[in-house]
Amino acid sequence: MVLGTYKQITLGRSTDKEIQKISQDGGIVTALLTFALDEKLIDGAVVAGPSDEMWKPEATVALSSDEVMAAAGTKYTISPNNWVLKQAVRQYGLEKVGIVTIPCQTMGIRKMQSYPFGVRFLADKIALDIGICCTENFPFESLKTFISAKAGVDFDLVEKMDIGKGKFWVKTQDDLISFPIKETHGYEQNGCKVCLDLVSEMSDISTGSIGAPDKWSAIQVRTDIGETVFKQAVDAGAIELKPIDEGKFGLEMLTKLAKSKKEKAMKEIDRRKAMGLPVPYKGSSEKEDPLANV
Amino acid sequence: MSEKIVISPTSRQEGHAELVMDVDDEGIVTKGRYFSITPVRGLEKIVTGKVPETAPVIVQRICGVCPIPHTLASVEAIDDSLGIEIPKAARQLRELTLAAHTINSHAIHHFLIATDFVPENLMATAINSVSEIRKTVQYVVDMVAGEGIHPSDVRIGGMASNISELARKRLYARTKALIPKIDAHVDLIVGLVADKDLPAGLGVTNAPTLATHHTYGDRTKFDLDRFTEIMPETWYDDPEVGKRACSTIPLYDGRNVEVGPRARAALFGSYSGEGVVAQHVARAMEMKTNISKVVDILAELDTSAPVMADYDVTGTNKLGIGAIEGPRGMDVHMAQIADGKTQFYSCLVPTTWNIPTMGPATEGFHHDFGPHVIRAYDPCLSCATHVIVVDDEDRSVLKNEMVRI
After folding, report:
1. Are the CB atoms for A176 and A195 separated by under 8 Å?
2. Long-range pairs for B339-342: beta carbons < 8 A, 24 or more residues apart
3. Residue B244: what pLDDT?
4. Which CATH homologous superfamily contains domain B3-384?
C-alpha cells in the first residue's frame, strides 16, 4: 500500500473564511489545530511559525488559535519542529501537544515514542501528529537561490509559493511565475533522495494538495486518535468534506506520485548501499515489499 | 577482648562505603570508622582546561542522586569567579529547582529507610506517598530546569529560559495541592521514627554543625580560611582503613563537622535535637519548609522577566565559590576562570564532610545500631570520593593534588 495505512481518505477544506484566505490549500492543518486547541483536545501545538525573515519558518510553540493562524501556509524550507518539542513540554508546561510534521519528522516522532531515550516524559505527551504531504524539502539558501535564478524574481517580493501540476509556482504582486519541478532537483536536502514517504504514513492525520482540486486538500485519517479528532472537527462543522475523485486527477495521481517517490528513492538507496554508504533504510533485496517504508 | 565488626558495603545508600567497628564483650561499639570505598572518577580534573560552560554539564554527572545541587554549586562558583550578578527571576528559578529537588531527595531517603521504620501494614501507604510526592516535585524540576535528573537549563549567568505563564499556573496548582500530602507524609515518617524507640542519645556526637543557609546556600557564610583538608592516613587510626579510604577528610576550624538537614535546623531554625532521631525529624521537616518555598516562589515569579545576565567568559582568575545546601548538606564548588578556561576546579561535597563524623557517631551503642546511625546521615558516596589511587595493585594513595587549595 503506497499510501500507508488509513481508515478514511477524503477531500476536505476548512469552513472558516479567515482560514481559507490564508491557507495554502484547504486549510486542514490550521482548521484541525485551532479546533483541537479550542476544544482543549491539545493544550498547545508545535508549528512552523513566522520568523524575522520572510519565508524562513521558525519552529514555534503556539498556545492559541491566533498563533496557529499566524503559522498558516506552506513554507518550502526546513522547520525543525521536533526540536522544540522539549521546550513545549518543559518551559511551556504542555501536557497534550499537537505537532505538524513532514514525513521524516513523523518518523522521528514515532521512533521517539517507541524508544524514548533522551526524551524522558516527553514522547507520552504528544497528543496529535498532523502529517503533511512532502515531495522534498529545501534548505533556506537553496530555496532563495533557485527562486531568484529560475523564477527570476527578488526573493523579498514573493507572496506565495506552491507546488502543483508538476510545477513550482511563485506568485508576486504582479506575476505568477512557474517552472518545472524537475528544475528544483539538486537543490533539495540530501536525505530527501532516500525518503520513501510522500504522505506522512505514520501520522495521525495526513493531508496535502496532491489529488485535490484547488483550495481543497486530500486527507488520510490514519489512527484512532486521528479519527476521534477528525470526526469531532467534521461534526462541529470546522471542516467540510467531499469524496475524493478516484480518477486521474484524484486518488490515482496521489498513488502514482507516492509510488514514483518510493521507486526513485529505492533506486538511490540501492545505489548508496552498493557503494557501502550508510542508509537508514533496507535495500530492495532485504524486504518483501520493495516499496514498504522500512 | 575487643572484636571487629565490618559491614561492607553499608547498604541502602548511594555508592560504596565500609563501616568498621571495634566492639567490646557486650557488643558495644568502642571505635567506629566509616569510609568511602567508591573509586575516584576525577571529574574535577576533567573540567580543568576546558571552557567554563563545560563544568556544570560534567560535574552534574558526579551523581544521579543529587545532580541539581552540583549543577547549582557549579554555576554559582563560576558566576562568582566571573563576577556575574544573575537576574532576580533566575535566582528564583534556581531556588525553586533546589527546593523541589530537596523534597524529592528526602522522599527517596524515606524509601531507603522504610524497612527500618515502616511496619508491613503501612509499607504500601508509605511507598505510595513517596511516589506521589516525587512525581510532582520532579515535574517541577523537569519544567524549570529542563530535565529532572541532569538539568540542562541551569546555566552560567542565570537560566536558559523562563517558564511560561501556563507552566507557572499549572505548577502552582499542583504544588499547592501537594502541601496536605506532604504534611501527612511528614507526620507518618516522624511518627514511625518515634515508634521505633531507638535508644536515647543514639548518634549524638560532639561534632559542630556546619551550614550556610536554611534552604538555598550562601557563599559568604563559608569561610575558606577556616577549611583544611587532611589525608585519610592521618585521620584514621587504623593504617589499613587509611590506605583503603577513597576520600580526603575535610575539617572546619580543624574539626570534623556534621552537615545536612539537622545542621541547617540547628543553625538557622534553633533546633536543639541531636542524634539519629533528630536527623530524621529535621529531614522530614525540611520537606514542609521546601514545599512552602516552592509555592511561594511560583506565586511571585514574573514569567516575563529576563533570566540571563550578560557576561564575559574571559575571567580574572578569581577563586569563585558556590555554596549550595544540598539535601545531604553543604555542597561547595570552587572554580577559577581565566583566559576563557577553567584553571582550577574543586568540589567539597556534603557526604565528604559527614564521613569522619559518621564513624564516631556509632560509638557507645550496640553495633546493631551502626547501620541506623549511618543511614540517618543519608550518605551518598559517589560525589564524596576525591583522591587518586596510584597503584591499582596495592591501592596505595598518591599525595592528593586534586583538591589542594
Report:
1. no
2. B339/B314, B339/B315, B340/B51, B340/B52, B340/B313, B340/B314, B340/B315, B341/B49, B341/B50, B341/B51, B341/B52, B342/B47, B342/B48, B342/B49, B342/B50, B342/B51, B342/B52, B342/B54, B342/B55, B342/B78
3. 87
4. Cytochrome-c3 Hydrogenase, chain B (1.10.645.10)
pTM equals 0.87
Amino acid at B120: E
Domains in chain A with CATH codes: 8-137+194-286 (no CATH), 138-187 (3.10.450.750)
Beta bridge partners of A138: A77
- The answer to whether the Cβ–Cβ distance between B161 and A43 falls below 8 Å is no
Q: Which residue has the cell 581565566?
A: B338
ipTM score of the complex? 0.80
Report the phi/psi class of residue B356: left, alpha or beta, with left for phi > 0 and alpha for psi in -120 to 50: alpha
Chain A partners of B164 at a C-beta cutoff of 8 Å?
A: 63, 91-93
Type and span of the H or E element at B30 = strand B29-36
Chain B environment of A91 (Cβ under 8 Å): 143, 146, 153, 161-164, 167
The dihedral sign for the CA sequence A190, A194, A200, A203 = negative
The three three-digit cell numbers of residue B396, written as one number: 596505595
**Coil, helix or strand at residue A251:** helix
pLDDT tens for A194-213 read 999 999 999 999 999 999 99
Tell me the one-letter amino acid at B32: G
Residues in chain A whose Cβ is within 8 Å of chain B? 43-44, 63, 86-87, 90-95, 120-121
SS3 A5: coil
Over residues B264-305, the pLDDT tens digits come to 999 999 999 999 999 999 999 999 999 999 999 999 999 999
User: Of B139, B148, B167, which has the smallest distance from its Cβ to A91's Cβ?
Assistant: B167
Kindly state the cell numbers that stand for A50. 513566522
Using a CB-CB distance cutoff of 8 angstroms, which residues of chain A are in contact with residue B168?
93
Q: Which of A86, A93, A121 sits opposite B167 (nearest CB)?
A: A93
Sign of the CA dihedral running B23, B35, B381, B276 = positive
Q: How many Å lie between the alpha carbon of B104 and the closest alpha carbon of chain A? A: 17
Interchain contact, B161 vs A120, CB within 8 Å: no
Interface of B with A in 136-165 (CB under 8 A): 139, 142-143, 146-149, 153, 161-164
Least CB-CB distance to B167: which of A86, A92, A121? A92
CA–chain centroid gap for A189, Å, is: 15
All residue ranges of chain B with pLDDT < 50 are 399-405
pLDDT on residue B404:
38
Say whether pLDDT at A181 is over 90: no
Q: Is the peptide bond before A243 cis (omega within 30 degrees of 0)?
A: no
Q: Give the start-to-end residue ranges of the domains of chain B.
A: 3-384
A/B interface, count of CB pairs below 8 Å: 39
Q: Is A31 exposed, middle or buried (0-12, 13-18, 19+ CB in 10 A)?
A: buried
Measured in whole angstroms, how far is the alpha carbon of residue B144 from the centre of its chain?
A: 20
